[in-house]
Amino acid sequence: MVRARQAAVPRPEPVVLLDRISQLVTMAGGADARRGKAMREIGLIRDGAVLISGGQVVAVGSAREVAKSTWLRQHRREVIELDCRGKVVLPGFVDSHTHPVFAAPRLIDFEKRAAGASYEEIAAAGGGIRASIAGVRGTSEQKLSEQVTSALRQAQAQGTTTLEAKSGYGLDAASELKSLRAIRRAAAEWPGTVVATFLGAHVPPPEFKEDPDAYVELLCAEMLPKVVKGKLARYVDVFCERGAFTLQQTVRILREAVRLGLRTRVHVGQMTNTPLETILAEHPASVDHMDELRREDIAAVANSDTVATLLPGANYFLATKKYPPARKLIDAGAAVALATDYNPGTSPTISMPMVLSLACTQMKMTVEEALTAATINGACALELGGQKGSVEAGKDADLAFFELDDYRELAYWFGANHCAAVMMAGSFADLF
Ligand SMILES: [Zn+2]
Fold this sequence. Notes:
Blueprint: E1 15-25, E2 44-53, E3 56-62, H1 63-67, H2 70-75, E4 79-83, E5 88-91, E6 93-95, H3 107-114, H4 119-124, H5 129-137, H6 141-157, E7 160-166, H7 173-188, E8 193-201, H8 212-229, E9 235-240, H9 247-259, E10 263-268, H10 276-280, E11 286-289, H11 295-302, E12 307-310, H12 312-318, H13 326-332, E13 336-338, H14 352-362, H15 367-374, H16 376-381, E14 399-402, H17 409-412, E15 419-424, E16 427-428
Helix pairs in contact: 6-7, 7-8, 8-9, 11-13, 14-15
Bound molecules: zinc ion.
Residues 97, 99, 267, 341, 343 line the site of zinc ion.
């Protein structure tokens, strides 16, 4: 049977000119992660303009330069012009580490912590990650996807246009697959970009407490092939930590993931040190947390292609005295990214501006380094540096607009949201 093809109606793609932008932070510099001193180069243009067509950036420069472009002259009649005076515009934040699939906040843990209990004491008493498992197992895919949608809306309201989302509170095949389908369902309704990660290796679930190796085997033999078959995730993540998975188990899972065609990333060094060399030999896209590092770990990550993703929201919320050694990592030449680690137990924030504030006040990053870490380097942590993370011709038109005069205010005001709008693939989610 020959199916009648619908006549293609030629529809002119909207052409948008963002004009007279008070401060345009371009992050120009191509697809690769920025390291060392290059992390301070944010490609700032005062009185800037961006020309957008077909969801992509066509031209960037000063308002005067862009006004002269031949492309603009040829398309002048179709152009929608927006006056962006009084605004700081930057590439939409890339939040490369979140755990949005959970059923409820962990308020009892929060109270216990305020009363002085540590993360590991709370976990030992049945709280922590394990407390979220029952919630996810008992919640429908529809309900979980509504939770994820709510998280995406909150992220977008604060300037995030690309977000990595992990499963990891189901911890059996059915609940992990349900979590990943919930991510896929929410992502389909959001105009931004969601990158899904399978984190079945978050902690061994209670039913495998006595035999975590058996859980690793189940994960490799049953869960991973189903994730691949359903095309449910691009990445596989492992929490390599005391009380979660050993280095040997981590490597076993990473290798199986790669064998099945998936890419990898690892939670490592949050509470105890794990020698990084063994993990880096598996070429993960990113190693995340990195609070507990030895000097040789810093050198090893600096000499690798793997991005070091720092999550200071977790340090803040857990009130650890120690933050990841951002200065040492940047000065050694590591590609440093920042993300929220949005999750119900240790980092209940989805605000990238809050993370910028923490980076500058607690980890002594410069505002420029923090912005680089939250945009282009975050994109590189998701291996999307060619499409996201900077405002450059040929890249996706994902932008965030802030009612500010100076980009440094992004990291200066904390606990306030100055994001006026975001543009995702060339369209405004909300017009200002
Ligand atoms: Zn995490």
